[in-house]
């Protein structure tokens, strides 16, 4: 049986909902994630995830093109060598929902991720590392979009 990406995502969401209902996943973690993805600004998203005031850091790396020819598929990466990191985020400031990716980290996971995101227009892109004590460390880069990916 060939499973489509959409079916896999639906099945994963259903399993997560069942685990949460059974009390095996913390409900507050699911609520924080929904609030963060529904946030309309970068600061609202960070606040919803329980992060403190962001501070710039050279220990967080962001990989993104200077110019994205197609905003529908912009390659981005986030990495860090900082200790005690619990989450890595990628945020696009001018997107309708700035939080485009959230990666949970544990000691068994290498804190280095690549993804693709939609960008509707040229914007600052943020890579944020949230530590276990709630500190938010970030780096940012302006990415110019020639053809918008959010209906532009």
From TrEMBL:
The keyword Iron-sulfur does not apply. It comes from the Bacteria. It holds the Pfam family SoxY. Residues 48-150 form the Ig-like SoxY domain. The keyword Transcription does not apply. InterPro entries: SoxY, SoxY_sf, Sulphur_oxidation_SoxY, TAT_signal. Residues 1-31 form the signal peptide. Keywords: Signal. This is Thiosulfate oxidation carrier protein SoxY.
